[in-house]
Amino acid sequence: MTEPVPAEGEASPADPHLAPEPAPTGAEGIAQLAAAARRVVDTVVHADPPADAALLAAKLHAIADEIAGSGRISPPRWDNPEHNRDHNPVTGAANPLAPPLTVSADGTGGVVGTATLGFPYQGPPGHVHGGISALLLDHVLGIANAAAGHRAMTAWLRVSYHRPLPLLTECTVRGKRVSSEGRKIRATGTISTGHGTHVSAEGLFVAVRPDLA
Amino acid sequence: MTEPVPAEGEASPADPHLAPEPAPTGAEGIAQLAAAARRVVDTVVHADPPADAALLAAKLHAIADEIAGSGRISPPRWDNPEHNRDHNPVTGAANPLAPPLTVSADGTGGVVGTATLGFPYQGPPGHVHGGISALLLDHVLGIANAAAGHRAMTAWLRVSYHRPLPLLTECTVRGKRVSSEGRKIRATGTISTGHGTHVSAEGLFVAVRPDLA
To answer: Main EC class of this protein (chains A, B) (predicted)?
Structure first.
């Protein structure tokens, strides 16, 4: 159940996940706004309880009102691959929840992304939450399937934790489709740092029926 | 690799995951601030590219500066179960990335939480990202182990997707320890709505060695 990926036959150097078009000014504006919101998230997670928390919260609500007042996205736009590329919670530059992970083709038929995760993503002290690693891998395996020409949904994902993944350390997330048989697609991936592989995943994906893609 | 949970013997009605003490004013302030930041995140994800995005981003950066200037948490505080309860990316009221899921004992030895996930958590149009479901389940299985008296790390987690989980719909996340043998613990869980079970998970967890707990 990863985010929608291009329909079969659309995957190519023009795959929106792999080679985004130069962003229009509007998208750049949203990315700038999301980056600022991401910094707010990080400072809130790091904050000693400020004496004036209520005042600061009121200021954030006022800005939220301003942003909301500037126009809301119409629902049909959500059902759009370019929109989801920009807004998903893993690689979405327009989504403050996304680290964001930046993903590209790895030159061997798979995909590779990098991110450095801070304290908002913490599980064990000083380390990335295991569920966040699962989130990154589910997404990257979906992109790998898209790059291989399959628009697919996750049927199951198995994530193995080999050693804790440190925060504030650049990590590399790799994904690759390993086989396909009818509508069933298998993909694997890893999260690694200079210290080796920390997390690995394998998954079974089911291609969206062509008449629904 | 879930967030740290209380050491064996500490799990009880006083388990900080299950029965939080009344929050001190400072924690309430941070929770208020995090709630406001969560609303900023939601409005950014919904925003039509505003003409004054750069100005709005500058305002957010100014507030981030104010929050950061009010005092940063000292590193030792991160290695603290109460701190992690408040700041983790799933149930943490102080973490704007967390929905937050609210979890309590289910009366049969397991734990149950509810959340309603909005567009920042979207994968397929109108539905929750599969990796977000994995994140919620990894966390809730860890809490279930804690409630059963085990401080443990995830060795592997297998998540099965039965049907897409709709956004903006209250979902129920359940977790339960099913067995333990030496340091190996097995736990299972589900995410359901009024339409049945959407996602299920099983995992193997390894208890933290008592001398390290």
So the answer is: hydrolase
